[in-house]
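Need TRAP transporter small permease protein's 3D structure for a figure. Predict it.
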Amino acid sequence: MLGRASANWARVEMALAAAMAAAITLLILLNVATRSLGVALFWVDELAIYAMAWMTFLGASAALHYGHAVAVTILTDVLPRTIRTGAAILADLIVLIFALFMIWFCWRWFSPLELARQGFDTKAFQAATFNFIYAEPTTTLGIKKAWVWSVMWFFALGATLHSLANLFDRSDRARGAP
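Structure prediction for TRAP transporter small permease protein:
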């Protein structure tokens, strides 16, 4: 069941990453066209950068599910199969720990409970925490950067799901479970 949830989430991540890649292409073409006409739209550059960041984080999380992450296997390739499996389980465990730390960092950064305690009043939240995450606007778009940074939640939760699924799947295979 966890593997199925990971696969479904990875499909969503890949679809969103593909949409971001298409958006980047269109935004860059729009940028080239408007600059050549002498009426540059400066918000296009910023939006393309944010789309690139979203594409990168969504694609990185999905890569964990598909096993397409970059790996150096020069050492593990020469190890006996049981030790190689143990090393792979250890790597999955390290990725899981990293993903859990990312959730913790996002929790501390976004402070959703403190925001709720302040009645979702961002000014009261800022006064209580000196955390301005919900107030800082983007340079040219004028939207709150918290919306842009929310991709970190998607990445952290997706990476946790994928690494858990990989860990359980690899552990089951190592034990010879069906």
